[in-house]
Design goal:
By secondary structure, the chain is mainly α. It has a domain at 3-20 and 48-143. The protein has helices at 3-18, 23-26, 33-55, 61-72, 74-92, 96-112, 118-133, 139-145.
Length: 165
């Protein structure tokens, strides 16, 4: 990994370690299905971002693929981030921005701890390309199918199944 990649990963870890959410600050209402979908999309985007930073020296095509992904889905990524930010502002008030920052930093830290071998970097290119070709509406389903499962402070809302009585 190049000097830039090491410093970025180190920054994620330093910032994240100083911003770990305490149970009291992360308590709140559960995450709706739409908010969960937004969190999965953010998790997938973060995975791609961290991979592009970790792989840039060994496999520069990962960064190029990531940049195309962001350009293709800029509006959808923005909407999903707004939904996540809205969750934290609703549940934490003024501290919501800090909650949002802690959450997104924790995603980066989680992916940053996973080291990328050259083969992993090469394998990431077609994955990012497939995500780039998907529609904005398909991003959440794609993220879920790829295993995006971020830890949600407050937890996921339980699904209630209506019954006839």
């Amino acid at each position: 990994m190049g000097v830039f990649g090491n410093s970025i990963c180190a920054a994620f870890l330093v910032v994240g370690s100083s911003m770990i959410a305490s149970p009291a600050s992360s308590a709140g209402r559960c995450w709706s299905e739409a908010e969960q979908a937004s969190a999965r999309v953010r998790d997938l985007q973060t995975k791609f971002m961290v991979a592009s930073l970790q792989c840039q020296a060994r496999e520069p095509a990962v960064l190029a693929a990531y940049n195309r992904f962001v350009v293709a889905h800029r509006a959808a990524i923005g909407r999903h981030n707004d939904a996540i930010r809205g969750y934290f502002i609703t549940t934490q008030g003024r501290a919501g921005e800090r909650g949002y920052d802690r959450f997104t930093t924790s995603l980066a830290n989680t992916h940053g701890l996973q080291t990328s071998a050259v083969s992993d970097c090469r394998e990431m290119i077609p994955v990012i390309q497939a995500a780039t070709k998907s529609s904005a509406a398909q991003l959440a389903a794609l993220a879920e199918s790829m295993g995006a499962d971020p830890k949600l402070p407050g937890g996921a809302c339980k699904v209630r199944i209506a019954s006839r009585r």
